[in-house]
Amino acid sequence: MNTDPTRPxxxxxxxxxxxGAGLRPVEDRVRRALDAEARSITPTDRLGAxxxxxxxxxxxxxxxxxxxxxxxxxxxxxxxxVAAAAAVLVAGTVWAVNRPPAPTPPVAGTPTAVATSTAxxxxxxxxxxxxxxxxxxxxxxTSPATTAVPPPATTIATVPVYxxxxxxxxxxxxxxxxxxxxxxxxxxxxxxxxxxxxxxLAMGPAPAGSSYQTAWSGVTAESVALTSGAITVRLSSGTxxxxxLATEQLVWTVQAALGxxxxxxxxxxxxxxxxxxxxPVSASFTRPTDPMTVLEQVxxxxxxxxxxxxxxxxxxxxxxxxxxxxxxxTVEWELLxxxxxxxxxxxxxxxxxxDRGTYRFTTKTSLTPGAYVVRVFAxxxxxxxxxxxxxxxxxxx
Length: 397
What we know:
- The protein has about 400 residues and is of the alpha+beta class.
- It folds into three domains: about 20-100; about 155-295, no CATH class; about 300-395, Sandwich (Immunoglobulin-like), CATH 2.60.40.10.
- It contains seven helices and 20 strands.
- It has helices spanning about 20, 25-35, 45-65, 70-100, 195-205, 245-260, 290-295, and strands spanning about 115-120, 125, 130, 135, 155-165, 175-185, 220-225, 230-235, 265-270, 275, 280, 285, 300-305, 310, 320-325, 330-335, 340-350, 355-360, 370-380, 385-395.
- The chain has a five-stranded mixed β-sheet, with no helix packed on it. The protein has a four-stranded mixed β-sheet with strand order 7-8-9-12, covered by helices on one side.
- Helix 3 (about 45-65) packs antiparallel against helix 4 (about 70-100) and helix 5 (about 195-205) runs antiparallel to helix 6 (about 245-260).
- The radius of gyration is 49 Å and the shape is elongated.
- The termini are far apart.
């Protein structure tokens, strides 16, 4: 049994029904009604339900003996009704597709937010032309990708550091003392890494138990760059310290740490004009080579081993090495415990003043466990008073 409504021209005694032309008044009325209540309509597919009702009505009329004319009359009113329902469905669909989009909350710019743009399938308009309406998700704010940069690998190394201190305790005559300090330094691939680590030690607080002074309070070494022609040291600022050897302290330190005598140039991040008083930032600096000038900058006596604060072996004698520039190359020494001398002696350096020579000696007494101070010094030939000294604390274990 055919459940479709009667199509135009299937009944010979009736005029054909032109659905498109006949529905224009209905469609106009429907559009006007939709205009008022468009935002409350949720389009649904009612065509199937209408056809089912028509089929049931047709079955009922046949079962009650009504004639063909009666069924045809029902079919005649169903045609505009079905067409009207179809028009409602089409108009509602067109409105739903073409209505202005509701405001969309901004999409948070998170790493997982992904912007999408898709197009709906084309649907016919009232004029028969296809309509394609894209829907878009709000674009998240674009932020540059960030990659965590791991800090450079570090290693423990011993670097030479030049400290500023009096030639003897209580003296106002300051000289540079070299000590070898074990510290964390950037990996060898970081050019200038050792120099930067050594500079920060030299400019930092004085080591515990020393009489060293700092001339760089509040100043930071920011970077060290090594090129074929110079070492460039960047400081946060210059210093106002009156210490005459403040700049020389940094020059000796960075050259020794990098193992080069290339001239040192300074940059000041704050735009200052002097590294220290009397040392313009526009100049280049290097350590002197004349022995007499060297003696005006570095202390006459250095102790290289043992290092300050190191642990030495108890039950054994202690060996000490260093550098000296003394009269007739004479180097004196003593071993102190609780301020009392427990051993002493003298040795001769490999060269006398004004040249600098190396020395070495071993204590005569084995060390028992405890704290000691190694004192290496030079005495005046005139009155025997100390003219230079270096004191290094150690612990025997």
